[in-house]
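Each field is set out as follows.
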Amino acid sequence: MGHERRPYPTPFSSCGGRRVDDRAGPRAEPGRGRAAPSARVVMGAIGVGGRGTYDLEAFLREPDVQVVAICDVQRSRRERAGELVERAHGAGCAATRDFREVLGRPDLDAVLLAPGDRWHGVMAILAMRAGKDVFCEKPSTMSVEEGRQLVETAAQYGRIF
């Protein structure tokens, strides 16, 4: 007997109090199917290997998400992700191997985190301290203590994790 899964919200269904899977309303640019620039969630992606690329592609399908920065230590992954962004947005994006450059960008609302497992908690905490909301792959942390720090950081900085 096969199981049917109920539909779940799209990635980042809530970011900064804005719903990214809500396509109705005044946010859409007339006739273009994309959100107005003032209503877009501007994102960076850190870690664009297999799972990171999968998540990135999901975000790129959202009309009110704009990816402007890519980070991965492997050049081939950065280049492949950059091509995906260019195909989706019609323009390229910044690419770097140092995640701190992405977190330091003042124009980002949120980051996609999909690096190696041991970096998830550290990068998420640093991202929230930098004023970014976070979409993170599992495991989010490597210990209970790190998990507590992550939750406290989200509360302290008013960020969505």
